[in-house]
């Protein structure tokens, strides 16, 4: 009787577990998405859309595909070996010269990259809040820094994961709805996404779009997050869950970036408005891909996040 009752309940249990498992399998990938959708990404995507319209949508598509591949490899490495990327590099390279090069790589990826990311995101968040509240940016930098410190000092992966998942959900909702409201040209979006081209003067902007998405320190982060999330599961299931999480989460991040660029293109580029100054510049239809005059280089934006 007990065995019969267990067999009767197992399909319901499996269905409930499957429904619950959809959310349980998500986490590290969304943290990575939250990591690369910083002020640098938002600024670069806005400048791109306002200056070149939809022409560089392919660069975002390319960077998202590349990020999915690299981050999935990093997560798989962490699960399969039980090591972080830094530990795997240390155990792989034994000769002094490659080991020194490896140390330089890690310092550049985590130290410099992490510092620029943290500084850019904290400053960008403070400037955004200052525009909304009218409070001084210097005060808000301290407040934002304390909030971040408070999250980190909890030492709880679950808390940080849930906060960042909520933030990604809010970002996706806001930017996607904004993109719908401005009614972009779908045909132009598809041409820009699947017909690669680099308009005159857009090379640095293209590099900036890719550089704000494919970021080295996220590779180190993802390997450790994957161990934290799926370390107790059988490796086959853990790798499968990590792959699904990575594909879905990074794709969401890419849609957010595309939505920002599309919104800027539809609301600004079509009207000849520049992102830097808000001024309208004359643009003839025969030179639709010509960039607007700018006061700052998007290359600087790629180092902010």
Offer a few descriptive terms.
mainly alpha; 305 residues; globular; 13 helices; 75% helix
Task: Walk me through this protein's architecture.
This protein has 305 residues and is mostly helical. 75% of the residues lie in helices and 0% in strands. It is built from 13 helices and no strands. The chain has helices at residues 2-24, 28-36, 39-52, 57-81, 85-92, 96-133, 137-153, 157-181, 186-194, 203-211, 216-230, 235-267, 298-301. Helix 2 crosses helix 8 (157-181), helix 3 packs antiparallel against helix 10 (203-211) and helix 6 packs across helix 7 (137-153). The radius of gyration is 22 Å and the shape is globular. Residues 1-14 and 280-304 have low confidence and may be disordered.
Written as H for each helix and E for each strand, in order along the chain, the element string is: HHHHHHHHHHHHH
What is the overall pLDDT average? 78
| CA-CA gap between termini | 60 Å
Q: Share of helix among residues? A: over 70%
Briefly note the structural class of the backbone.
mainly alpha
Query: Count the strands?
Result: 0
């Amino acid at each position: 009787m007990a065995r019969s009752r267990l067999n009767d309940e197992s399909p319901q249990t499996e269905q409930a577990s499957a429904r619950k498992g959809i959310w349980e399998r998500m986490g590290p990938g969304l943290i990575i998405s939250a990591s690369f959708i910083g002020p640098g990404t938002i600024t670069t995507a806005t400048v791109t859309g306002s200056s070149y319209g939809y022409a560089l949508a392919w660069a975002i598509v390319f960077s998202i595909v590349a990020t999915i591949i690299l981050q999935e490899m990093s997560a798989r490495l962490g699960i399969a070996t039980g090591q972080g990327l830094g530990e795997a590099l240390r155990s792989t390279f034994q000769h002094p010269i490659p080991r020194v090069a490896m140390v330089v790589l890690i310092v550049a990826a985590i130290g410099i990259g992490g510092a620029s990311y943290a500084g850019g995101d904290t400053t960008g968040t403070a400037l955004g809040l200052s525009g909304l509240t009218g409070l001084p940016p210097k005060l808000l930098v301290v407040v934002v820094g304390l909030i971040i410190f408070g999250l980190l000092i909890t030492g709880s992966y679950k808390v940080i994961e849930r906060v960042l998942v909520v933030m990604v959900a809010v970002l996706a909702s806001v930017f996607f709805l904004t993109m719908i409201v401005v009614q972009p040209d779908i045909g132009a979006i598809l041409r820009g996404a699947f017909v690669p081209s680099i308009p005159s003067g857009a090379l640095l902007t293209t590099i900036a779009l890719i550089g704000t998405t494919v970021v080295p320190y996220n590779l180190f982060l993802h390997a450790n997050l994957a161990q934290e999330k799926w370390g107790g599961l059988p490796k086959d299931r853990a790798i499968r869950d990590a792959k699904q999480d990575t594909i879905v989460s990074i794709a969401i991040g890419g849609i957010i970036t595309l939505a920002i660029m599309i919104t800027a293109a539809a609301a600004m580029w079509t009207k000849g408005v520049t992102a830097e100054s808000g001024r309208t510049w004359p643009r003839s239809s025969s030179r639709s891909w010509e960039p607007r005059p700018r006061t700052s280089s998007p290359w600087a934006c790629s180092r902010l996040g």
